[in-house]
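Predict structure. Input: Two-component sensor histidine kinase, 381 residues.
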Amino acid sequence: MSYPPGPADAAAARRRGIRRGAVFAAIWLWPLATNVHALLAGQVAMALTAAAGLAAFAGLYLYVVVRGFSSHRPPTVRDRLLLAFLALLGLALAAGWGGQPGGWGGVILYVAAAGAALYRPPVAYLWLAGTVVARAAVGLAHGEPWPEIGESVFNLVMAAALVMVVRRLMHLVRQLRDTRDELARAAVERERLRFARDLHDLLGHSLSLIVVKAEVVRRTAGRDPDAAAREAVEIEQIGRTALTEVRQAVTGYRARAFTDELAAAGAALADAGIEPTVRVPAQRLPAAVDDAFAWAVREAATNVIRHSGATSCVIALSDTGGWQLEVRDDGRGPAPDDTRHGHGLRGLAERLALVGGTLSTVDLAGGGFVLRATAPAEAAS
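Output follows.
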């Protein structure tokens, strides 16, 4: 089972985003090699100024694109200012050296790509439109033919569109990763609740039996040592069984058997001085219903022994197009503020809900308490 991420996982994910953004941005710097070649060949006037401007432009471009790819938050004021400075620097390079060798007008393409990486639509579309106008204006100012201007504008639009698509894909991947992490957290919480429910159901029943039998040992130890010894042996057996059940619950493969729980509940009720009556037809239950009703019998019998003060208890199963289990006693129902009892019933209701069933309880007017569990005829496993 996956476990939810911690701070270290979030930091690692952010570092991955930065690395990917840097690699993506750096790959697209290769067209600037023509500008560098023109500088090294001495074909550009004011070469030092152009080289310094080009280096600053490339550094700003890398920073802005990495910020756009690595963060899912809106751009900060600092990010916006740096992008604006990048745009001004790009326009200066394109306007000042656009007519010289090296294709300096093409740097506006990087301005468009940086805006597409930092902004989301519709702002990204407005930024793209502005860069298209700027590229056309620079080309016209330097006397470039319309076909060359059109080709440059087309390349600019395609580059910006590619950046938008990649940024969107990375955002979707981030959302999927966040969803996966949320599902992992939910799975851990469900497992915690399952274990708490199993532990309550298993130990609540076994410990109640141990308490009842320990009271029998205390009452009979003086006058009937043999009977007390037999009860002590049963206490030991119950304790060992409970230990085995807890181990099975921890490993997650415990399965309840309805008929076994009926027999155990009848014996436990009799040991507690409560007369049991079991009315169950010899009919096989679906596996999911069998397991859920087994837990219902265990929980109901435990509550009758611990809380009701009853002298009799009837356990009845009926099939009327759907399964219904009813446990009725002649004692008193749980107190409204009995949180332990409520916790067990909530857990039982959750188990029944998993198979499409329901749980209800009724305090009888003349005295007595009824627990009723239902499940559909074809319950989900």
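The CA atoms of residues 53 and 92 lie 9 Å apart.
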